[in-house]
Amino acid sequence: MATFVGEKASTRISKVWSIMNPDMHRTFSPDRQNSFVICIIAGIVATCFSLNAAAQEFFHHDRFLNGELQGNWGRQLGNGNIDSTPGEFVLHDPNDVSAWWLTRIDGERVDRRSEWSFRARVTLDEIVGRDNVFFAVGTSLYHHAGIRETIDGDNFLRAGICNGDVCETPNIEVPYSYLGEEVLVQYDGFGDEIIGTVWKDGNSDSQVQVEHFFPLSDTFPAIALANGSATIHELWISSEPIPISFLSGDFDGNGNLDAADIDALLGAADGQDTRFDVTGDDVVDMTDHRTWVKDRKNTWYGDANLDGEFNSSDLVAVFQAGHYEDGIAMNSGWANGDWNGDGYFDSGDLVVAFQDGGFELGQRTRRTVAVPEPMNSVRLVVILGLVALKRRRLTRTLDVGCQSCARACRA
Question: What CATH number is given for 59-238 in this structure?
């Protein structure tokens, strides 16, 4: 080891060793000391690389609101074509198979990975050219989860790998049609296992799953279509398993009722997307908003962090976010203080929250619900004053804490 370590470096390593392990400093020779310290440094470097890789997890969710996939596909195999409109992404392949590799998304290159989770909300539109239509999500190495419907009305789910004439794809029959019906199909490739799942939104009884064990390799996410057309309404791509949720109101399918869901509902208000019709009246409006808050999430207006309570911590959080009467159009969501659904955080949101009557009452229960009191202007002024005072005190506390931290770092 001494052959590869310079004299100055060796001296410095010896000093490091004596500081780290003063009792053993005389026991080990300089060469042994060099070996130990260099191994420790190598371990630290490896850990840093590991932490950096872990921090670069990938997630992408797209509803095609601008009429096209955000970014671009990257590479296409086959002669299929794309016809997209806002909210829909239509793939066509009349009598063969086409695949689209997602090597770039949002203008950024996608890193190859061996493990992917890929979900699509899709409708098979028609069978063209042959006796079945097939759609799959998976990877550019042909690992996939696919759905297939025949002209005889038989429906299947398969998972595995299919490359040319070589296929390892166990099939399972599915008891409902894909043609003209929205379904969700998901590919999960983790470890040496591929799992394919198909289900109808919000219907746990419709879930069908098949698995196949096969070694996975680094690759890109991809979709494929054969012998027909399919409309993708929404897709999710992740380097971590995407939870499958049957919660009513969990619009992004992540297994939680969170701020992203209620913000998505507001984004769909007055539109025709019935996935956001929580009440089932074929209209997406503020009645759905209230039903989501009070019945689905069972919480109070003003519960910014959606922990089930409306208290001072919620007020501190929304004022710290800095959206209060900032004059920026439609820049606020539930977590930033927009509780009345107009896209802003202002006094109107505070009126809604305090009129709901849950401030500092703890968890909301369906059996014990507070009766809201009328909100007069004097009370609102008092509340705003208290909130502003709390905000100033919090800001001063944070400033003092940051200054103390800065002094400690300079010492």
Answer: 2.60.120.200
